[in-house]
Design brief:
Blueprint lengths: L2 H18 L24 E12 L2 E12 L3 E5 L6 H8 L7 E6 L3 E2 L5 H6 L2 E4 L11 H9 L5 H6 L4 H13 L15 H13 L5 E5 L7 H14 L4 E5 L3 H8 L5 E5 L2 E6 L1 H5 L2 H8 L2
Parallel strand pairs: 3-8, 3-9, 6-7, 7-8
Antiparallel strand pairs: 1-2, 1-4, 4-5, 9-10
Helix pairs in contact: 4-7
């Protein structure tokens, strides 16, 4: 990391703490007694990752990673294989416990105190690279299952949607470009459509933060373009973190003005507009030049 980037990151962290009314080494509002419920986004920050490190058998997958995602922000994260992108998402969603560091959702909820189901319950949704849908069920049935309050399969299958839930389902169907496929078995959808369906299942749970791991892998050019339109339509309503290798897709999402973060060896190597990071000598050397 360059001295300029380190200084910029330190300044942003200091400003964040000052905004929180920080005293000492801990920002005010962090570390309060945990109450699982609506997170507090009054400070404008959806996700706060500070000095997070993770080691696997001596290999440092994350090395004092610092990252801040604002409410309603769409952030693209790029980097070579082994940069720590998946491990970062594992920590945020409770799949992996870090060796050190802090991860907060809003200003009051310490994600490191919660288990995976609890983290999903409070509004953090994650989409993996490979779509996971219930293939024998129809598109509508998949979306219905995703929004049920009672997650037991039998209870979910026989529960009825409320009027508001039905309206939301219709809205999501249109949003994910599957309005005409509602009664089709999910197993008959194309790869790209299955990706959209899984995104729709996440949206039915009304997440505040969406973590999306290579969402356009295997998609056609047309599907990729429509996925970019979908994500841009979600910006502002949800915070989105998109991990991706497809630079054309990243360019579509960032529109030349949004922040792109480059990870390398478990920490931030560069951050800024896409054109700036693409021109960064270190980024070219470790990632784009390959």
């Amino acid at each position: 990391m360059t001295p300029e980037l380190m200084a910029e990151g330190a300044a942003r962290l200091a400003a964040y703490r000052e905004k929180q009314g920080a005293s000492g080494d801990r920002a005010a509002g962090f570390g309060r007694p945990l109450r699982i419920g609506e997170p507090d986004f009054g400070n404008g920050v959806a996700l706060y990752v500070e000095d997070v490190s993770v080691s696997f058998d001596g290999f440092k997958a994350l090395n004092r990673l610092n990252l801040t995602i604002d409410v309603g922000e769409l952030r693209c994260i790029i980097g070579p294989n082994g940069a720590g992108k998946t491990t970062m998402m594992d920590v945020i969603t409770g799949k992996t416990a870090p060796d050190e560091g802090r991860v907060f959702f809003g200003s009051t909820i310490d994600l490191l105190q919660l288990r995976e189901p609890q983290i999903a319950q409070i509004g953090v949704g994650r989409k993996f690279q490979k779509p996971t849908v219930y293939e024998p069920l129809t598109v509508v049935e998949n979306l219905e299952l995703a929004c049920k309050a009672d997650r037991r399969v039998r209870a979910a299958l026989f529960a009825k949607l409320s009027g508001a839930q039905r309206d939301r389902l219709d809205e999501v169907l249109a949003l994910i470009h599957l309005k005409d496929e509602g009664h089709r078995a999910a197993g008959l959808l194309s790869h790209g459509q299955k990706q959209w369906l899984e995104i729709g299942m996440l949206l039915m749970q009304d997440p505040k933060l969406l973590l999306l791991d290579e969402p356009v892998a295997g998609m056609t050019d047309e599907e990729t373009e429509r996925t970019a339109e979908l994500f841009l339509s979600l910006e502002g309503q949800h915070s989105l973190v998109v991990v991706e290798h497809d630079m054309k897709f990243v360019d579509q999402l960032t529109e030349g003005r949004k922040t792109v973060t480059v990870l390398h060896e478990g920490r931030v190597l560069a951050e800024g507009k896409l054109a700036d990071v693409q021109a960064n000598v270190q980024v070219i050397e470790v990632y784009l030049g390959r």
